[in-house]
């Protein structure tokens, strides 16, 4: 069985190497060259930038999904919010979010503030690594590469809420939410986990919290914000009849939605495989598990919705793919391909029942974001204990 040590909390391992002085000494480019690891370090940084670019592309996928599953009159608002997610997200994460998540000198609750505006204060592009007790140099990532990869994750977390709030949110209000989410809420959750904070330091026996690429840290965090927001703004006009039963409000372009799902599927290879943080032989395994789980999610969702309605709903099948992707995000580095298939298949089944359940309690989620990222985010994290 291919396995990777997941109890190291995925992304926290290497980011902690340069963000915390307690981890080890700094190794300059010259030291890396002397140790013969400079070429590998450059490849690691290159891979992290490529993976981050793939995750950046996921913003286009979210935009297409939201646009396709909502009415045409809201298209401009949907696109503006997705553009704002990246602009506001990058700005706020750079100004304060990154140091809250990973800043050196912090405690269990938040990171230290000594690394604010880190990119603005860099005098060079030296790679930062850790030296073990024998003087061996570990993985080396530049601060810029680390920030680049982490900031697109922050933008993803806030975008998740956008779909659930579609068609009834003021743009200015949404901008405030996006700023708070990427400056404080998401970074605090990251610090507790990947940033070696509160939850990372908890254990039950030898077991510690594990979330390789963010089923809970990214997706459930975004989904909780989406759930709270959808509850506060209430359902769209006409969503529920006088008898209280939900009515379908069809999106204006299912083709957009399918294109969006495929873009997200493609970008997820960067999301999951990029969380390995280094360019090694394990990347293909991570990408394969990601691919298999998404395909299984489509199958699971399609079968269930067809059995319940007699129609193979394309939009629900697309949500099945996303459900499989979210479900495998946490355990992707810890399970065999057969388990990835089962995890994705169950995720596809879960998302159908979850969407119907939220509809029945009058939580109006036009794109199913709460179910895809929330319910399946929980399932994905729990699946580590079942299959790893």
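Q: What amino acid sequence fits the structure above?
A:
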């Amino acid at each position: 069985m291919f396995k990777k040590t997941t109890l190291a909390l995925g992304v926290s391992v290497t980011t902690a190497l340069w963000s915390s002085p307690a981890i080890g000494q700094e190794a300059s480019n010259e030291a890396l060259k002397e140790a013969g690891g400079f070429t590998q370090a450059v490849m690691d940084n290159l891979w992290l930038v490529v993976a981050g670019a793939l995750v950046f592309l996921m913003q286009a996928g979210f935009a297409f999904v939201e646009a396709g599953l909502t009415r045409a009159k809201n298209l401009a608002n949907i696109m503006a919010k997705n553009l704002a997610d990246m602009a506001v997200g990058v700005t706020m994460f750079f100004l304060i979010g990154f140091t809250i998540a990973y800043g050196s000198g912090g405690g269990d609750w938040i990171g230290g503030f000594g690394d604010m505006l880190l990119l603005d204060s860099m005098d060079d592009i030296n790679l930062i690594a850790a030296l073990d007790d024998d003087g061996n140099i570990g993985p080396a990532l530049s601060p810029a590469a680390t920030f680049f990869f982490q900031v697109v994750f922050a933008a993803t977390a806030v975008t998740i809420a956008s779909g659930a709030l579609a068609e009834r949110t003021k743009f200015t209000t949404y901008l405030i939410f996006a700023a708070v989410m990427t400056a404080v809420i998401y970074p605090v959750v990251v610090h507790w986990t990947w940033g070696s904070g509160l939850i990372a330091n908890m254990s039950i026996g030898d077991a510690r919290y594990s979330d390789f690429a963010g089923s809970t840290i990214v997706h459930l965090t975004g989904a909780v914000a989406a759930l709270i927001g959808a509850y506060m703004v209430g359902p769209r006009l006409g969503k529920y009849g006088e008898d209280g039963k939900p009515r379908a409000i069809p999106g204006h372009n299912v083709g957009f939605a399918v294109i969006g799902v495929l873009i997200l599927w493609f970008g997820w290879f960067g999301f999951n495989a990029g969380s390995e943080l280094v360019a090694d032989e394990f990347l293909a395994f991570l990408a394969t598990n990601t691919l298999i789980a998404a395909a299984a999610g489509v199958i699971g969702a399609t079968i269930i919705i067809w059995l319940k309605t007699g129609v193979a709903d394309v939009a629900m099948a697309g949500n099945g793919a996303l459900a499989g992707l979210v479900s495998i995000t946490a355990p992707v580095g810890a399970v065999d391909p057969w388990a990835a298939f089962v995890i994705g298949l169950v995720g596809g089944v879960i998302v159908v029942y979850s969407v119907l359940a939220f509809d029945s309690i009058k939580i109006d989620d036009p794109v199913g974001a709460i179910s895809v990222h929330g319910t399946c985010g929980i399932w994905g994290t729990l699946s580590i204990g079942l299959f790893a």
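Q: And what stands out in the fold?
A: The CA atoms of residues 101 and 191 lie 4 Å apart.
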